[in-house]
C-alpha cells in the first residue's frame, strides 16, 4: 500500500492524471481484497472525483482508473442489495474496458470479474437465464487468462446456478471442474468450499453417504459443518428404526 501512495505522490507532482487515478483505483482494489469495504469505497470515490476535477474533456474520463473504481462500487452496491445501481456501474465499467482493450486481451481478467459480477446480480434478482449468459461469457474469457483461480471461481458460480435450478448433474459437473482446479493450485479454503458445495448437491439429490463424505472432508479443511450435523442426526435416527 505504501508503494502505491508513493507512486501517487510522484504522479501528482508530475501532473500525470491518469496514473494518479490508477494508483487510487489500485488502492481501492487492495482495500476491497482485505475486506475493508469502507476504505475501498472511499478510494473508489476519490478516483472518480480526482478525474472529474482534472479532466475537462469527458472522453478522457473513460480510462482504466474510472473502470476499476466503477467495478468496485458495483461490487459494494451488490453487497448492500442495491442491485440495479450495481448493474449500471458494472455495465459502464465493462464498456470502458472493452473500448480500452481493443481486442488485445490486456484487461481480460478485470472484464472476467465484471462479467461474473453481472451474472451474480442477475442470479440474485431471479433472472437465471441472463445470469447463465454472463457466467458463460466469463467462463470463456477466464479460460484465456493465466489465472486458473479465476476460472475455478466462474465454474463454481455456474455450478451454484445449476444447483439452484435443481439441475444436479450439471451442478456436479461444474463443481467438480472447479474443485479440480483449486486442488491443483493447492488452495485449501477454496477446496473446502467446493467440497461443501458438492456435499450440498449430493444431499439434495438424496445421496446421503456421498454427501457425508464431502461434508466430512470439507469440515476437516475448516468449512462450516452445519449440514454435516444434520446428516449425522438423520443417520442416527435411521439406525434406531432398523
Structure characterization notes:
The chain has 242 residues and is an all-alpha fold. The protein has a domain at 2-146: Serine Threonine Protein Phosphatase 5, Tetratricopeptide repeat (Alpha Horseshoe). 80% of the residues lie in helices and 0% in strands. The radius of gyration is 21 Å and the shape is elongated. 40% of the residues are buried.
Can you give keywords for this protein?
242 residues; Serine Threonine Protein Phosphatase 5, Tetratricopeptide repeat; single chain; 12 helices; mainly alpha
Would you spell out the secondary-structure blueprint of this structure?
Blueprint: H1 2-13, H2 17-33, H3 37-54, H4 64-79, H5 83-101, H6 108-124, H7 128-142, H8 148-164, H9 168-184, H10 188-205, H11 208-220, H12 226-240
Helix pairs in contact: 1-2, 2-3, 2-4, 3-4, 4-5, 4-6, 5-6, 6-7, 6-8, 7-8, 8-9, 9-10, 10-11, 11-12
Silhouette: elongated
Radius of gyration: 21 Å
CATH class of the domain at 2-146: Mainly Alpha
How many angstroms does the end-to-end distance come to? Answer: 62 Å
In the CATH hierarchy, the third-tier topology of the domain at 2-146 is known as Serine Threonine Protein Phosphatase 5, Tetratricopeptide repeat
Mean pLDDT: 82
Strand content: under 5%
Q: What's the CATH architecture of the domain at 2-146?
A: Alpha Horseshoe
- How many strand units? 0
- Proportion of helical residues: over 70%
Helix-strand category: mainly alpha
> What is the overall number of helices?
12
The largest β sheet comes out as: none
